[in-house]
Write a structure and sequence with these properties.
Layout lengths: L2 E5 L4 H12 L3 E8 L12 H15 L3 E5 L1 H17 L6 H20 L4 E3 L4 E4 L6 E4 L16 H4 L2 E2 L7 H10 L21 H6 L7 E4 L5 E5 L27 E7 L4 E6 L7 E12 L10 E4 L7 E7 L5 E10 L6 E6 L2 E12 L1
Parallel strand pairs: 1-2, 1-4, 2-3, 4-7, 8-11
Antiparallel strand pairs: 5-6, 6-17, 8-9, 10-11, 12-15, 12-17, 13-14, 13-16, 14-15, 16-17
């Protein structure tokens, strides 16, 4: 059987991944990645407690385990990009970059130095086909599918990847963890970005980027309030705007962020979920990455412009220098520059790019 390095995070998904592979007869080595120097954020990102859970799981499974520090790589390859995008007024998705640059680049390189045949993680996704021609597929459990976050992987990376949970529903993973007496069987799933944790997002960004308050206005030019800094807001945002009691406002109709004017440092807000400025029939994307051949033009495909979104039927047109355009059958809500748009052909994840702008 194969020698498999498993990325153990201290959660139930990676623990069951290691258990499944050992049950299949593989030689399993557990590795815990430290991707952030906790400093004063340690209470929000309990690295020490997660590593203690990893050690407890490894003890039950009787597998070797070690810790490796990729904090510098994370700072250079992910966090610097994260800050630059927010400073530019966009809304990045660092989890996508973390998978491509850390888990399946820095970590994969490390796993290969351990003479591993494969690197396995607790992602919910599936792989199909021979090395060099492998396809990335959605997980069986549609509620947990994470192919969106894996769409920037290359053929060289997925040639060494294993996703044992791709065929399982999350309740079944919990059942297996209990049956195997894994100490993390009931541990709550982690959410969000680890280096931010439960800390308020604005407070976190203030540690790294200067705050530039400005005016909040309607598309017609009416000033309705002040924003605390464009970087703190994202398209479609409703909460935290602090708009109320406007004389010309429509009663009981909520306000949403609809745009950013960086030259004037102004936040554009509108009333109503279905306001035309929140709807896009098309989008432009750049920094395209395709797992296999680029998708054919003229075919009906589907895309997600955010993780928790239903597949939206669309057609693609390829541009120059890694750009492409998607035209949707139905308008898409709050298409957000900086976010990833991921393209699918049925269950097959084809790849995607970074949203540059929405269009009519």
């Amino acid at each position: 059987m194969s020698r498999v390095v498993v990325g153990l995070s201290g959660g139930v998904d990676s623990a069951v991944t290691a258990w499944l592979l050992k049950e299949q007869g593989h030689e399993v080595v557990g590795v815990f990645m430290k991707n952030w120097e906790a400093d004063d954020l340690e209470d929000d990102c309990p690295i020490a407690r997660d590593y203690a859970d990893v050690l407890a799981v490894a003890d039950v499974l009787d597998i070797p385990v070690q810790q490796v520090n990729f904090s510098q790589e994370y700072q250079d390859r992910v966090f610097a990009y994260f800050l630059a995008e927010y400073e530019a007024g966009r809304t990045p998705n660092p989890d996508v970059l973390c998978n491509a640059e850390i888990k399946f680049k820095a970590f994969l390189d490390y796993a290969l130095t351990l003479k591993a045949d494969f690197l396995a993680t607790g992602h919910y996704a599936r792989l199909r086909g021979a090395p060099g021609q492998r396809a990335l597929l959605k997980a069986v459990d549609g509620n947990k599918d994470q192919s969106y976050f894996l769409h920037r992987l290359s053929q060289a990376q997925i040639a060494h990847a294993l996703f044992p949970l791709g065929e399982l529903a999350k309740p079944r993973v919990r059942e297996l963890a209990r049956a195997a007496a894994l100490p993390v069987a009931e541990k709550k799933d982690s959410t969000g970005i680890c280096f931010i944790g439960e800390r308020p997002f604005r407070e976190f960004l203030q540690r790294f980027l200067p705050t530039r308050p400005g005016l909040m206005r309607t598309p017609e030019g009416q000033v309705v309030g002040e924003h605390q800094g464009l970087m703190y807001y994202t398209l479609g945002q409703r909460k935290g705007l602090g708009i109320g009691g406007m004389r010309d406002a429509i009663p009981d109709v909520p306000w949403f962020v609809a745009g950013k004017d960086r030259e004037r440092n102004e936040l554009i807000v509108v009333q109503g979920h279905e306001h035309p400025l929140l709807l896009s029939r098309s989008l432009e994307a750049d920094d395209a990455h395709w797992i296999g051949p680029p998708p054919e033009e003229g075919r009906l495909l589907a895309a997600k412009t955010r993780y928790r979104q239903q597949d939206a039927p669309c057609e693609i047109t390829h541009g120059e220098s890694g750009t492409f355009r998607l035209v949707f059958e139905q308008p898409q809500w709050a298409v957000t520059p900086g976010q990833s748009v991921v393209v699918y052909d049925g269950d097959v994840c084809l790849g995607g790019g970074i949203i540059a702008r929405g269009g009519t």
